[in-house]
Amino acid sequence: MQMSYQAYPEILFIDATYKLLELRLPVYIIACEDSAGRTEVVAVYLLVTEDKTSLKCMLESFKKHNHSWESTRVFTSDKDIKERDAIIECFPHVALLICLFQAMRSFRREITVDKLGITPGQRLFSLELVHKMAYAKSARDYDQLHEQLVANCPKNVINYFDTNWHPIRAQWTMGMKFSTGCFMNTTNNRLESFNSKLKSVIDRYSSLENLLENNFIILTALRTERDHTAAIQVQKVTICSQPEDSPVFKYRSQLTSYAANFVVEQISLASNVSNRRSR
Fold this sequence. Notes:
Helix content is 54%, strand content 11%. By secondary structure, it is an alpha/beta fold. β4 (74-77), α3 (81-90) and β5 (95-98) form a beta-alpha-beta unit. α2 (52-65) packs parallel to α3 (81-90) and α6 (120-134) runs antiparallel to α7 (139-152). The relative contact order is 0.12.
């Protein structure tokens, strides 16, 4: 785990899963992303309580045993206030991002007829507008949509949104996230996937011994699959039809196939951009 984090410290994902232990303790998973886009679990914690003090203690323990923590640039989590405050205090230099899927789920849970005293039509319109804001490509697009929200949505919706979400818009809006160096990650789905694998192998409310044993079985299986894929990638000779002095050829010779595909796609899109000069 330490070696994986040392090799890929730039972005971390954190999430908790529940109902695995008979002791009713939440299981916190911290993971990073490797050069092939795969999830690498770098820490597993069991917490008795989920208050801010316990979360800070967990993160300080992580830093103590992983000296590459200063190289982390992005931390992705949900919108839990205690968790986010602990991350900000322990990793003051990182960009804290909110999982887009969980943000949208929060909107659907909080913008309701009963909680905000609005009509079903107003709720539907507000959720559609917030959804567009989440996928805004730039700060300018977001500001235009926010103006529409202020002008057309009920006051209770505006107050809720401006109090809880507007001040941290750079943490959950798609276009603003990409400027942080999040490696195209907008959700915590990779951890959700790992948690699903845990629950498919570990029975609900298992013993601590069973949890630890099966957790290492899953990690070993995932790493074996990762090593197999990496070996094939190293042995496989990539054929590039571009000239050796072309940008595409140079990128493909230096990057993994996973990373190179993103770069080549952007090079292809750039060739279709026209430079229009105002007269």
